[in-house]
Amino acid sequence: MSLLVVGLSHRSSPVSVLERAALTRDAQAALVHDTLAAEPAGEAAVLATCNRIELYADVDKFHAGVAELSTLLARHSGVPLDELTPYLYVHYEDRAVHHLFSVACGLDSMVVGEGQILGQIKDALALGQELHTAGRLLNDLFQQALRVGKRAHSETGIDKAGQSLVTFGLEQLAAGQPVDAWAKGKRALVIGAGSMSSLAAATLARAGVDHVAVANRTLARAERLVHTLEEHHGTSLAEPGSGATGVTASAVEMAAVPGELALADIVVSCTGATGLVLTADAIGEALTGRGPVALLDLAMPRDIDAAVHRLTGARLVDIETLAEASADAPMAADVDQVRSIVSDEVAAFGAAQRAAHITPTVVALRAMAADVVAGEIARLDGRLPGLDDKQRAEIAQTVRRVVDKLLHAPTVRVKELAATPGGAGYADALRELFDLDPQTVAAVSRADTRNAQLRNTARESA
Question: Residue 239 pLDDT > 90, yes or no?
Fold first, then answer.
């Protein structure tokens, strides 16, 4: 089996296609289940963000895997395969590992160096674990991607190469002014209560807006976000004008959005809705008799009608605008250092996976040797019934030492060779030379996978 990724992103596809291909969480779950059911793969996971949709799988055949994964992406995204295919990219084996590690470090993000992708990779892994579609390979891969991403952010200045998508979007709205100066004293409306909306609310609070109203389909989630703002950013739940100091915040239902829209100077929207949340007519009505409004749409598919661009007094920045703006963003010198980290980590991951691939075969070989020793000792007992317990134990220990010494050098050497490129064939050779039972080897592999999942679960809990 080998790692394969098929996907599309802001680098390969127009935003209009990405928008149509966006997957809900339910659609992601159905996609990975169908990937396993169609049997092109033994494991599957999906990474779906505003800027990318990628299906990862452990496949036994490259061409058949690409065809099946592409078909499944088209089916679940609702974009016909012939329309989707021109924008799809494919990465295989080490190139697939390199791609995910680069994504985790923010090298493939719309805003280079942004760190929110780590949370999205963590969510993708959690979904694969919850659905039991991520086995040993994908668990190891995504866990290592998270560690590589954290290493890049801690050891380099990649954070300086770009900002979060929220900050970048607000900078575009500020049109050259410092965001803090531009936002100070304004009233903001944040629609949605997910991770991106939470980041937007926190960023606006730090920038000094006068009030943040949070609207969400589930009011309880909006209230939790408001309380988080209160706890971490010194906000108050009081309404503006109540005499409370600092930034104030409130949670409102979606039905209250038109009223909040009429008051807001800044609107940030990022929901999981499949249709428009704010139409051009609604925003035009809210603009009647008041000053301009700045709108940031971070949703995919979009929340805010693109026709808002034509409204006087409304400035809209959306994913498409950000993609165009980020194309000219400067790259920091630290990017080269991160690329070096990624290359080193890819090599180390490949070596570890190749070495791990042969471990079940080595374990099965030693188990077979132990069975042979046990059988011969039992036969000796029948031939020499007069041996006392001490003599029998000494003979058994001597035979085991001889077998261990004979197996030590070849098993150590085969593990070293297996860690080198092309080393996977040594496991096959070992199984063939010693006529090992494939089912025994498979049983060891399954046990290793279960143990790895338990270790990852324990690590996450800690």
Answer: no
Catalytic residues: 50
Give the β-pairing of 266-269 and 293-297: parallel
| 346-365: b (≥16 Cβ within 10 Å) or e | beebbbebbbbbbbbbbbbb
Residue 438's H or E segment, with its range, is helix 438-461
What confidence tens digit (pLDDT) does each residue in 51-65 have? 899 999 999 899 999
Span 92-132, pLDDT tens digits: 999 999 999 999 998 888 777 778 899 999 999 999 999 99
Would you give the end-to-end CA distance of the chain in angstroms? 31
Tokens of 346: 């890819």
Q: What is the pLDDT of residue 240?
A: 46
Query: How does pLDDT run across 418-445, given as a tens digit for each residue?
Result: 777 766 677 778 778 888 776 665 555 5
Helix (H, G, I), strand (E, B) or coil at 329: coil
| CA 265 – CA 190 distance, rounded (Å) | 11
Q: How far is CA 130 from CA 43, 45, 320, 380, 447, in A?
A: 13, 11, 33, 52, 19
Please give the DSSP secondary-structure letter assigned to residue 236.
B
Phi, then psi, of 264 in degrees rounded to 5: -75, 140
Domains of the chain: 2-162 (3.30.460.30), 165-326 (3.40.50.720)
